Amino acid sequence: MRAPALLPCIALLSGLLLAPFSSPGLPLCTAAIVLAAAAVSASRGWLRAGSASIAALFFLMGNAAHTLQETTSPALRELYQREGERAFVSPRHVEGRLRREPERARDQTLLTLDVERVTVAGQEIRVRGGLRVSVRGVHRGRLELLEASDRIALWVRLRLPSHFRNPGGFDGAAYLARQEIELLGSTKSGLLVTLDEKGPLWSSFISRLRLRALRRLERALSEETFGVVAALVTGERAGLSPELERVYQRAGIYHVMAISGAHVALWILFLHGLMRRCGVSASSSYLVLLALLPLYAAFCGARPPVLRAVVMASAVLGARLLSLRSPAVNGLAIAALLLLVHEPLMVGDAGFQLSFAAMGTIALAMDPLHSRLGYAGRLALPLAISLAAQLGVVPVAAWHFHRLSPVAPFASLAAMPVAAIICFLGVTLIAVSELPLLSGLVALATTHAVAALNFIAALAGHLPVASLRVATPSWTWLLFYASALALIVSPSRRRFGTGACILVLLVAWLSFSWPRKGDVLEMAVLDVGHGDAIVLSLPDGKNVLVDGGGLGHSSLDIGESVLVPYLLDRGIRKLDAVIVTHADFDHIGGLFTVIEELEVKSIWEGDPEWALSHRAAYRALHERAAMAGVALRVLRSGDSFSWGGVQFEVLAASQPGFERSNNRSVVLRITYGKRSLLLTGDAERALEAALVRTGADLRADVLKVAHHGSRSSSTDRFLDAVRPRLAIISARRAPSRPLPSARVLHRLRERGIEYLRTDHNGTVTVRIRGDGEMSVSTYLRGSVFGFRP
Q1: Do the domains at 76-199 and 520-782 have one common CATH topology?
Q2: Can you count the helices (H) and strands (E) in the chain?
Q3: What is the DSSP string of 47-66?
């Protein structure tokens, strides 16, 4: 077999991917039987049976790893859960060692450490676990003196990692778990962090070398140029502006800014070629490179992407050193086995999947490409390799990011040589920084090279088809795509043509949205923390977004991280209407990205005069809508119309006489058949009382509780007028914001009203059929209950 490591690698991957669907305990019981079968096969010389047994064993290992990790509770997290959240409301004294140097960001510095001791209730407890701490305040500069492996002590407020629980969204807690980070923390000043003990000499030496290199680059280059060069040479991406990152993402070449397999391969090819020209044998060159790679990883901060790239490169070099056939395929398979055995959760990491999908497709495609292109076609080989890498990452990019970039192969082909030049110029600049004239010339050349790279990214990103937003692929689609990719890399020309046609059709399928029509009104209340975002899918296929969430205290974009992923996961790329209930940021913050990334036909709002004069963010939203050509429609109290197969009643819209923004909310009653939904925005008791006084029919089967369950809303009189069977609360509890209010929950329970909370249940989805049957499900619990007509 040309690639003996490939079979166990595929088996282990399959076991890990299918583990969530397996019965707990079954893999461990079966493994003993398979191990015995493998031993018998080996003793009798049954090669095929032995290979099958080994593959089955690796599959069961992957299956069992999921169960074993779930039953093994990390010590630090276990302490937090045992003591309870209240024990950690105030800051706690924590001691531990830094995994890496402090990571600088615009408004904070991040410390990642392995905890050794925590003081709880005056008692010092020895404990192990990963912790990431955000340090804010004006004294963050003193943290730059800290180095990897330093032992530090700090006062920190601890909490469990959390994330927004919505279909298609990014699972931040799982991401941190893959990095072995069990708790998050925050401290308000760098003065609360003290150095207890310096790390080992070798670690300190590498940290100082890296810091000195960064300072030399920072002195010689402008801020924007430094950010790009630091990312390419040292893996430090804190200097990249969010705007520049978006440019590279849109062009499909953001991987250029991360130290990956391509960067490591570049340095290996350069150093290997240099040593060969100096008369060093190939095997000696491989040994030298194997010794240098760990030092390179340490210099680049030993972050997961760097370590992954170094392990991949080391495995391929080891395969070459051992003269294995197909060294690239064998080496990558061995690297995947090593990484997954060390950390099984890595199988779900987007970076891991992107790296191995790209490099694996290139490795499998190299022989067929050489044979098909021939000698004359070798000039097209770089483009073919770039295209192969992009074909490999299509399913990963679609699954995790809902984005495809048709221009990426061509942009990568143009960008990688320029990035290579910047790497060499950056290293040269570090070396000659003490020579003013020479360093000035190198800095000038580096600045022009970075400008060229940014120009390539901007040009590619502004092409009409630069970035396509796509729906989440189904498992069936992924299976067909993998089969077509296998045909592409096969030696047969006929299979190549068949596979290429299938791939084109599959990518085209993802690029189109297929409206879902049926006899159903669906309302999904998304988990956006302290805010509102509701998606309505109407019976005739139209889609409506009511409010867009938003976190005023955070740089996190709810539109990018929650709304767009959810909509694309549902196959929704066009919104027929966006309804803005009022102008508070926690209701409009995510709409900017929605308008930019998706097709929005119109925005419905109450009288905008007050909001435009009182809210700068609302003025900016109007400007963004005008730039995108989005139509505006003003809703007025008393409006009633049929649209999309349902009846809309505007019960309130920018009511005169109210100065508070909350009481200027649009209140909608939506009726389908005999069922009604009542959406109340942030209406408070004054607006609720006004609605009751009008005598309007407020009855509804489902109530979206106003103002996130605040005690200033959901009064007794209002609840008696609405008489809902189900209440949905969109909120997220925090020490400074105890929502939903205990009083509101008591009022609901007192009336026998079922209620669901997005902070406990994730997305809450209500489906109403034309015959009146209503079902309710949540993201975390699945189907909850239903009501028959």
Answers
A1: no
A2: 28, 27
A3: HHHHHHHHHHHHHHHHHHHH
Tokens 């003591």, residue? 83
Write out the H or E segment, with its range, that includes residue 578: strand 577-580
Structure tokens at 218: 């920072």
CA-nearest of 401, 448, 547 to 229 is 448
Q: Which regions in the chain score pLDDT beneath 70?
A: 1-8, 12-13, 15-74, 324-326, 369-381, 513-517, 657, 733-737, 785-789
**Every domain of the chain and the residues it spans:** 6-71, 76-199, 206-470, 480-511, 520-782
Q: Which of 610, 575, 612, 607 is nearest to 590 (CA)?
A: 575
**Structure tokens, 345:** 């959760």
Asked if 587 and 531 touch (Cβ cutoff 8 Å), the reply is: yes
The CATH architecture assigned to 76-199 reads Beta Barrel (2.40)
Neighbours of 444 (CB within 10 A): 13
Please, where are the H alpha helices in 517-615? 558, 564-569, 585-588, 591-597, 609-614
DSSP summary character for residue 788: -
Q: Is this model's pTM higher than 0.85 or not?
A: no
CATH fold of 520-782 reads: Metallo-beta-lactamase; Chain A (3.60.15)
- CB-CB contact of 362 with 389 (8 Å): yes
CA dist., res. 394 & res. 503, Å (int): 10
- Residues 709-767 have pLDDT tens digits of 998 899 999 999 999 999 999 988 665 567 899 999 999 999 999 999 999 999 999 99
Using N-to-C axis directions, what is the helix angle for 381-401 and 475-488, rounded to 10°? 170
Q: Token pair of 78, please?
A: 């276990």
7 vs 11: CA distance, rounded Å: 6
CB 683 within 8 A of CB 637: no
State the alpha helices, DSSP H only, in 122-182.
172-178
